[in-house]
Write a structure and sequence with these properties.
Blueprint (H helix, E strand, L loop, with lengths): L8 H13 L1 H12 L8 E6 L4 E6 L2 E2 L1 H12 L4 E6 L8 E4 H17 L7 E5 L4 H13 L2 E4 L6 H11 L3 E5 L2 E3 L2 E3 L1 H9 L7 E5 L13 E3 H5 L11 E2 L3 E7 L7 E6 L1 H14 L7 E4 L6 H13 L3 E5 L10 H9 L3 E4 L1 H9 L3 H4 L8 E5 L5 H11 L6 E4 L33 E4 L13 E5 L9 E2 L3 H8 L7 E9 L5 E6 L3 E4 L2 E4 H8 L5 E11 L3 E10 L8 H13 L8 E4 L13 H8 L16 H8 L3
Parallel strand pairs: 4-17, 6-7, 6-8, 7-14, 8-11, 11-12, 16-17, 16-18, 18-19, 19-20, 29-30
Antiparallel strand pairs: 1-2, 3-13, 4-5, 9-10, 14-15, 15-23, 21-22, 22-24, 24-25, 26-27, 28-29
Helix pairs in contact: 1-2, 3-4, 3-10, 4-5, 6-7, 9-10, 12-14
The chain binds 5'-O-[(S)-butoxy(hydroxy)phosphoryl]adenosine.
């Protein structure tokens, strides 16, 4: 990749102008010069936002793993592709060169084939952050199977919902996972999940923690039993540009998660190009993104983006606090990491522990820092800048979404300067705009509006699996002809964007995108609960935490056990990440005359902004507001 490298402001301005004035030529060039295609496209982009029909590089043929692996094996077979740092400090690290990665991915692909998986089949991957997770993802892509990675912290019910929604027939998991001092029996969770699935299911089990597991001889296969007898090369299956590459579920404003579908060619071009420029990757750099591959960040910026560029990407199995809070910095020191990409919630948690955990580690290899997942507050930004970057590493605050596939707004080191708490400028080809509630464009500086994008970019999601109507309604209906992000933002006098947060019923807790609806649905299954409303409130470490307002069937039941029962239900239905920090019992919830819960008022109360509740006189039951304020936590 040596074309269109953006390395100064003049260069960016020129390229940005071209990318928006002549996107066809711009992306045609990027795609032609930087990737290997079996067959070129007949058109660069075809789109209609009203119908949410978007196609890039139509009729081209390629395989993304050929671009991520094989071509680098030819040029640089012994370069390290993946570094693996295990959770347990006494376990030896591992590394895989590009040539070894090819073999591992091919072997895994052959295992999948031996289990009957073929192009277009859905494969659910429920694994900890171990190398086999990377191999599984890439093995699916090698043979054209559609991977659906489910974060291994999700509960069995959440897993079952995802398996059933996309009709996957194989789940790849491990016996267990190591997380800090604990182990978790993942196979057990999969067994539970499959009780709720059809009988076409197979399970492939990776050996990780050596714990006892149940084996159903007709359904479960041990990877170790199969892999020794498969061939170590597998031809890449030719994919059409628009063939789905993967499904990744994200929460929405109804109980059902949305299976965002990403396509092959556009996703490859955009993730790869953004990686190269935003992280300014150089030949001998070691790049580390601390996300889990269960989230989009891991898909795009641990695996596909870096590997497509022939980078060395680090995978860490563990958590920042184990064996103590110096773990991240020890890893940076150990591998001489050059780019470090993490989430604001991790930065806040580490900052709280003090600089003692930082100081004995040599962080001088760091050149670029990154954040993603939620707005970063100024205090955390400064701590990161001073203590980790030693005030000499640019910080890229990268704004994007599961739906966007890649980074849309970010600074570029040495090109677009960073600015604390601002994501800054649109990346090449990205045309953001801010709209008011009437859909009129806000041109003034420093005025918050709804962030929309008016032209497609190559890695935009193509649909929601099995529900294109919902895709149209969620993203393309609020404002005609625009993609609506669900975020609020404003622009400063220099055109820098600052994201202010979600404007819908999605709450970002510790960087995890949680819909209020699925949590409320889970809670409402409690036999004593009549109704519930979940809102977010500011939290030092998590960014936001969850506050539940609950009405019981018969107030006499008000007991202390209710909070733990609610949290048990949530853990079971969704996963521990969605547990409530505060639970308040109330005799009623504030409602509009049409019966809609006024979450806006509850949000203010949860944030202790009692004086800015706005007009409550139009409520059906204004009297309940005083009661809620008086009992608020
Ligand atoms: C939502 C998307 C993109 C990968 C991780 C999250 C928020 C994301 C930033 C940022 C402010 C951010 C937005 C967005 N968000 N990055 N740099 N500054 N907010 O992916 O789970 O799909 O969540 O995360 O609200 O809409 P996701």
């Amino acid at each position: 990749m040596n074309n269109y490298i953006i390395n100064n402001k003049a260069n960016y301005d020129l390229a940005y102008a071209e990318s928006t004035e002549n996107p066809v030529k711009f992306w045609d060039d990027i795609a032609s010069k930087n990737f290997v295609w079996e067959k070129k496209w007949s058109s660069v982009v075809n789109w209609n936002f009203d119908k949410a029909k978007i196609k890039w590089f139509e009729n081209s043929k390629l395989n993304i793993t050929f671009n991520c692996i094989d071509r680098h094996v030819k040029e640089n077979p012994d370069k390290i592709a993946i570094l693996f740092e295990p959770n347990n400090v006494n376990e030896k690290e591992k590394s895989y060169t590009y040539s070894e990665l090819l073999t591992e991915v091919c072997k895994m692909a052959n295992v999948l084939k031996s289990l009957g998986i073929k192009k277009g089949d859905r494969v659910c991957i429920y694994l900890p952050m171990i190398p086999e997770l990377a191999f599984s993802v890439l093995a699916c892509a090698r043979i054209g199977a559609i991977h659906s990675v489910v974060f291994a912290g999700f509960s069995s019910e959440a897993l079952a919902t995802r398996i059933n929604d996309c009709d996957s027939t194989l789940t790849i998991t491990s016996d267990g996972s190591f997380r800090g001092p604990k182990t978790l029996n993942l196979k057990c969770i999969v067994d539970d999940a499959l009780l709720k699935c059809n009988d076409k299911q197979k399970v492939l089990v990776v050996n990780r923690t050596q714990e006892e597991i149940n084996i159903d001889k007709n359904r479960d296969f041990l990877l170790d039993d199969i892999i020794s007898s498969v061939e170590d090369y597998c031809n890449p299956v030719l994919m059409d540009a628009e063939d789905p590459l993967f499904i990744l579920y994200t929460s929405g404003s109804t109980g059902k998660p949305k299976g965002m579908v990403h396509s092959t060619a556009g996703y490859m071009v955009y993730t790869s190009y953004t990686f190269k420029n935003i992280f300014q990757y150089k030949e001998n750099d070691v790049y580390w993104c601390t996300a889990d591959i269960g989230w989009i960040t891991g898909h795009s910026y641990i695996l596909y983006g870096p590997l497509c560029n022939g980078a060395t990407t680090l995978m860490f199995e563990g958590v920042p606090s184990y064996p103590d809070y110096s773990r991240f910095w020890k890893i940076v020191d150990k591998y001489k990491v050059s780019q470090f990409y993490t989430a604001p919630t991790a930065i806040r948690a580490l900052a709280k522990q003090g600089v003692n955990f930082v100081k004995d580690n040599d962080l001088s290899s760091l050149r670029i820092l990154g954040t993603v997942g939620e707005p970063i507050n100024e205090e955390a930004w400064n701590w990161y800048n001073e203590n980790i970057g030693k005030s000499k590493c640019p910080i890229v605050d990268t704004w994007w979404q599961t739906e966007t596939g890649g980074i849309l707004i970010s600074s570029i080191p040495g090109v677009i300067p960073d600015k604390a708490t601002f994501a800054t400028k649109p990346f090449l080809g990205i045309q953001p705009l801010l709209l008011d509630d009437n859909g009129d464009e806000i041109k003034e500086n420093n005025k918050v509006g709804k962030l929309c994008i008016k032209f497609p970019w190559p890695s935009i999601a193509r649909t929601i699996w099995g529900n294109h109507e919902r895709y149209i309604n969620t993203y393309f209906s609020a404002f005609k002809g625009k993609y609506f992000t669900g975020d609020g933002a404003f622009r400063d006098e220099n055109g820098n964007y600052r994201i202010t947060g979600r404007v819908d019923d999605v709450i970002i807790v510790s960087g995890h995108n949680l819909g209020t609806a699925p949590i409320e649905d889970a809670i409402n299954e409690h036999e004593n609960i009549a109704e519930s409303a979940i809102v977010g409130f500011p939290h030092d470490i998590k960014g936001n935490a969850l506050y539940g307002f609950i009405t019981l069937k018969g107030m006499s039941l008000g007991n202390k056990k209710i909070k733990s029962e609610i949290n048990e239900l949530i853990s079971k239905k969704i996963g521990p990440i969605a547990k409530l920090d505060k639970v308040q019992l109330t005799s009623g919830l504030p409602k509009t005359r049409s019966g809609k819960i006024m979450r806006r008022i509850l949000r203010k109360i949860a944030s202790k902004e009692f004086n800015s509740l706005g007009d409550i006189s139009t409520l059906l039951n204004p009297e309940v507001v005083d009661e809620i304020i008086n009992n608020s936590l």
